[in-house]
Write a sequence for this structure.
């Protein structure tokens, strides 16, 4: 059937099944390849997108639950000013290595930043606990996000 | 630019904004998808396979479609497709390929395979199911005088690389030529395997690496198997064929770190170690693959940072019907050095010494004779590292603070850079090219891949720094075997030290011609340092051309009720010669600590009847950000004269020392003996109740 | 091809499921994974599906004098952020899955799946939670305990759906919750312990202890709870609970660990009461 939703700011329509995954639709039907499939079961966060402003794993999101809603992928988000700040912090801190988890990590980071600026260490870590990175040991990511939340307290 | 400048990764932006293209992101015209038909049993003969009526647009590719049904790694014992006989659960029997995934699934549901099942072997460590044995000695244990023997056994489990990007390759055969694209560490391993399996000429095969989302050894030899499969498929169909594993498939059916068992026997006289004996065994699975080489690095590392005068070392690779095991960051050393370091801690406890002070008298020094009777050629600063570690962690104070349920543990680890012995000169024969184009941009032409570790950044930085130009004038594309020479595989912590060393030399040669307007190409070939002497037959001589070192201290707390382990702090001091790029190096350190922590206490992986039980991200639990300890890291400078700007190996070292430090910290906290990795709450409880 | 339906109202939903052949699909966090086959391919659904996430009537948390009412499509995030619910209900939801999962996983889904590791079950057992099941012609309310029949087994009938969870309000003096997994976040339970108690006139009025993921179903023993209030005998209570444990070793943990450690935790909580420790 035809599914209508908003994708990166534009109203879109796509012929697909209601039980198809949002991840497959954005990657295959809309050719947006920045959203990755890591674990395919909601554990790794590589497929995170915003759905009506909330982070969700697109690997477990049926298209039915997307109808009429707004989806933002890394391609859409990377056009914003806020993204540029995140990119800069990730670059400066060295928060990227193999890169496969990174777009999802960026989306989860924005999910946190949206909450407001005063976040504790625990808030940040719990906020990123659904994003698995196998390369960095998370320290650089944590520093980047902490810096972004303006709560730079080095405890070394 | 200068080598000491702080820079950002050269490949960072595309990865952050999602425009980096991994194999699953790349479009191909007329692409066919492959899915693997796998054995449902662990061992036995395939009596018959009943395929349903094959639709016109589907293809079955099996052993009959290969020119030679062998995957050439070091040996050729692994078939590309099981041909009438299977040796492990999940062994590939065929690829089913087509353009419609749903149709492939429907077809595969109706395939019936009849087997004549035989009993598989799932335990290792005894019996005659042996692939190979290796042995060496030093000094003389026979006539040794001793007054005490201290003997313990240790074991370690599987570990999965769990690179974030799953295995994936595309084979594209047209007009008599084959191109393989995909996620890999070793483009030339793949090319060589294809020359063997396809019967195509060298010049008709091309391998191009695409962005690789993590590998950790998991994409060293395994992609050769997949490449042979997609090559056969593409040659049969005449269209590009893509094989990307689903995650569970990837976890369950690709190579793992070898489970191991180590017996350590120490001979003591007057509380001093006078001799040691090791018996190390690993589960190779049904095919040898790289297991012998893993075994070798394991046993060659076995005396760690210590000078042991009398020694007997034996290593065995066992053949089983479990999943076959292979390369993983550390390559045998995480297993043997867990055993050694845990043994040293237990020995210190047993004799009533402080574990740090107990080790010091045995630390190897320049000029000492190594376990394989070679000579340590470089300055070794283990004492300085021990001092630094103790100072950084506040060792004496920390020790006092430890009590029940809190503990500290230490480890000292060497890691030899590059291939074992004369492997670089005899087998790899690395070649690099550096090209200056007419716009005066510099092209790095090597087969080393960027897989997250920072090869592009570090190698570009070395070249830019020698030439004293901006790093953005360096062009380093993903390797394409048509364009780059064989500078060896991206493994063994050799990329910075060996390939970087060659590029350093090439850049020096290019430097004087930088002003000229013509295109210049410099070729640099590997030459073995004069001091390296190696007898592969008897495992004698300089096992490695240089060693990197680490000293690690872990602080853990164990929950008194639940026995859950929390690693609070990791202190670590490294000697990697000279880090080429601080940020990249620290990234390797933190990542290595995370993977080592997983190996130590989180990543339980077991098999049942030969099949991996922990088959998903939810059951195979790698560290999340919440699991990470505070990491306090430092390094000493100890330039290696053959390495670029003094650099030595770094990548693998960072993982190896973590597990023994954590294990002995738990031992310290709980006053029980830890002899098994990973250390789990379940095992602690069992130990407490016994 | 399977049939997928998308009702906008509860009435439409009831009409659809009255035919008895639809599988109900809410947030998707379980079914989308369990029914996967291959990246990019269709899920492996054998039966027709009716989606309910879009039905606004099925979302929200309300309270009346005696109960909290939680509609089936309320997400775990809604639970953890709720201004209505007490902390003892919110906490287990806050520790389930990870943030992106909590944003979509539903309260109803966690119950209807009836997985051994479903963390809401021990909580609802302890709270004497009930559910309202609706079908076209009738509604019925039963306790969660009566509803859950086994691992992945419930008492739901073909033409019914879980409309809401009803949690009786009780005076809770203190509560404790412990979830143990193999790492510190984003984890399935090896086991979990829900512990509640109430004091009346400075005297222990009740305790409630429920242990999840050890057996296929949560363990709760009302009789033993009542006995404990009378005799304060920790050992007797633990013995009674231990008798009910029938776990097995599996890939997540061992029978020994689950039983021994969950009981140690219960013992600790009971001892705290006896010592008169005050809880926040």
């Amino acid at each position: 059937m035809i599914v209508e939703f908003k994708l990166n700011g534009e109203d879109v329509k796509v012929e697909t099944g209601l039980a198809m995954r949002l991840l497959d639709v954005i990657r295959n039907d809309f050719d947006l390849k920045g959203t990755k499939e890591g674990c395919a079961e909601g554990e790794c966060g590589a497929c995170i997108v915003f759905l009506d402003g909330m982070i969700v794993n697109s690997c477990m999101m049926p298209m039915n639950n997307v109808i009429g809603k707004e989806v933002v992928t890394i391609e859409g988000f990377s056009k914003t000013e806020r993204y540029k700040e995140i990119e800069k912090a990730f670059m400066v801190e060295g928060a990227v290595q193999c890169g496969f988890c990174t777009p999802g990590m960026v989306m989860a980071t924005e999910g946190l930043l949206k909450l407001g600026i005063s976040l504790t260490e625990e808030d940040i870590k719990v906020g990123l606990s659904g994003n698995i990175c196998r390369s960095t040991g998370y320290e650089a990511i944590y520093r980047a996000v902490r810096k972004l939340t303006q709560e730079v307290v080095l405890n070394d | 630019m200068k080598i000491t400048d702080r820079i950002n990764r050269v490949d960072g932006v595309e990865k952050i904004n999602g425009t980096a293209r991994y194999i699953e992101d790349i479009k191909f015209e007329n692409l066919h998808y492959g899915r693997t038909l796998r054995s449902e049993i662990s061992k036995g003969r395939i009596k018959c396979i009943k395929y349903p009526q094959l639709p016109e647009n589907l293809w079955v590719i099996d052993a009959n479609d290969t020119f030679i049904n062998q995957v050439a790694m070091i040996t050729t014992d692994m078939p590309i497709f099981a041909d009438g006989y299977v040796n492990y659960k999940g062994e590939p029997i065929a690829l089913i390929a087509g353009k419609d995934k749903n149709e492939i699934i429907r077809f595969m549901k109706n395939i019936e395979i009849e087997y004549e099942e035989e009993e598989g072997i799932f335990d290792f460590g005894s019996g005659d199911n042996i692939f190979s044995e290796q042995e060496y000695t030093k000094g003389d244990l026979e006539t040794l005088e001793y007054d005490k023997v201290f003997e313990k056994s240790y074991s370690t489990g599987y570990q999965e690389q769990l690179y974030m990007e799953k295995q994936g390759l595309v084979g594209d055969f047209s007009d008599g030529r084959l191109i393989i694209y995909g996620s890999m560490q070793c483009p030339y391993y793949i090319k060589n395997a294809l020359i063997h399996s396809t019967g195509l000429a060298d010049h008709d095969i091309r391998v191009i690496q695409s962005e690789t989302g993590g590998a950790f050894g998991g994409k060293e030899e395994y992609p050769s198997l997949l490449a042979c499969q997609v090559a056969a498929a593409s040659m049969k169909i005449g269209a590009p064929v893509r094989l990307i594993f689903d995650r569970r498939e990837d976890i369950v059916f690709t190579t793992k770190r070898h489970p191991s068992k180590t017996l350590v026997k120490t001979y003591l006289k007057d509380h001093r170690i006078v001799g040691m004996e090791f018996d190390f065994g690993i589960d190779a699975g049904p095919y040898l693959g790289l297991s012998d080489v893993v075994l070798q690095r394991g046993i060659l590392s076995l005396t760690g940072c210590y000078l042991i005068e009398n020694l007997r070392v034996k290593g065995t690779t066992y053949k089983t019907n479990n999943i076959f095991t292979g390369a993983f960051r550390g390559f045998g050393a995480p297993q043997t050095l867990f055993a050694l370091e845990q043994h040293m801690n237990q020995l210190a406890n047993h004799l009533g010494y402080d574990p740090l002070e107990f080790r010091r008298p045995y630390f190897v020094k320049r000029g000492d004779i190594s376990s394989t009777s070679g000579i340590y050629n470089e300055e070794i600063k283990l004492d300085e590292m021990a001092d630094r570690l103790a100072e950084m962690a506040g060792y004496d104070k920390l020790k006092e603070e430890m009590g029940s349920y809190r503990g500290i543990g230490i480890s000292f680890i060497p890691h030899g850079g590059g291939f074992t012995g004369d492997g670089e000169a005899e087998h790899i024969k690395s070649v690099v090219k550096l090209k200056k184009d007419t716009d005066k941009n510099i092209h790095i032409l090597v087969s080393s891949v960027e897989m997250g570790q920072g090869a592009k950044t570090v190698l570009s930085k070395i070249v830019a720094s020698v030439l004293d130009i901006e790093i953005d004038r360096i062009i380093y594309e993903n390797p394409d075997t048509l364009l780059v020479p064989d500078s060896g595989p991206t493994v063994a912590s050799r990329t910075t030290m060996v390939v970087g060393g060659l590029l350093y030399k090439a850049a020096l040669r290019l430097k004087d011609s930088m002003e000229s307007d013509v295109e210049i190409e410099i070729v640099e070939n590997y030459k073995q340092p004069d001091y390296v002497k190696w007898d592969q037959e008897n495992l004698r001589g300089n096992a490695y051309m240089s060693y990197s070192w680490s000293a690690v201290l872990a602080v853990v707390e164990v929950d008194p009720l639940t026995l859950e382990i929390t690693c609070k702090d990791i202190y670590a001091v490294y000697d990697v010669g000279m880090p080429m790029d601080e940020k990249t190096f620290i990234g390797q350190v933190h990542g290595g600590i995370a993977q080592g922590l997983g190996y130590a206490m989180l990543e339980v992986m077991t098999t049942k009847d030969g099949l991996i039980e922990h088959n998903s991200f939810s059951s195979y639990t790698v560290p999340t950000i919440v699991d990470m300890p505070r990491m306090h890291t430092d390094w000493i400078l100890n330039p290696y004269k053959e390495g670029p700007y003094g650099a030595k190996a770094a990548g693998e070292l960072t993982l190896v020392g973590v597990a023994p430090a954590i294990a002995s910290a738990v031992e310290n906290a709980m006053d029980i003996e830890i002899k098994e990795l990973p250390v789990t709450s379940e095992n602690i409880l069992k130990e407490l109740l016994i | 091809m399977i049939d997928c339906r998308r009702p906008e109202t509860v009435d439409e939903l009831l009409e659809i499921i009255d035919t008895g052949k639809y599988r109900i699909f809410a947030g998707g966090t379980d079914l989308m994974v369990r029914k996967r086959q291959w990246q990019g391919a269709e899920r492996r659904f054998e039966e027709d599906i009716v989606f309910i996430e879009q039905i606004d009537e099925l979302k929200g948390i309300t309270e009346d004098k005696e109960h909290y009412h939680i509609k089936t499509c309320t997400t775990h995030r809604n639970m953890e952020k709720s201004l209505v619910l007490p902390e003892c209900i919110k906490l287990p939801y806050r520790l389930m899955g990870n943030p992106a999962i909590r944003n979509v996983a539903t309260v109803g889904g966690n119950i209807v799946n009836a997985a051994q590791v479903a963390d809401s079950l021990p909580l609802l057992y302890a709270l004497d939670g009930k559910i309202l099941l609706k079908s076209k012609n009738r509604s019925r309310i039963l306790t969660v305990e009566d509803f859950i029949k086994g691992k992945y087994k419930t008492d739901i009938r073909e033409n019914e759906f879980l409309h809401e969870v009803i949690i009786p309000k009780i005076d809770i003096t203190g509560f404790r919750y412990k979830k143990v997994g193999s790492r510190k976040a984003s984890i399935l339970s090896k086991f979990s312990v829900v512990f509640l108690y109430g004091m009346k006139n400075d005297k222990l009025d009740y305790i409630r202890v429920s242990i999840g993921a050890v057996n296929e179903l949560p363990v709760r023993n009302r009789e033993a709870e009542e006995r404990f209030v009378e005799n304060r005998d920790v050992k007797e209570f633990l013995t009674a609970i231990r008798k009910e444990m029938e776990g097995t070793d599996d890939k997540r943990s061992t029978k020994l660990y689950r039983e021994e450690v969950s009981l140690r935790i219960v013992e600790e909580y009971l001892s705290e009461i006896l010592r008169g420790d005050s809880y926040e």
About this structure: The domain at 4-168 of chain C is CATH 3.30.465.10 (Uridine Diphospho-n-acetylenolpyruvylglucosamine Reductase; domain 3).
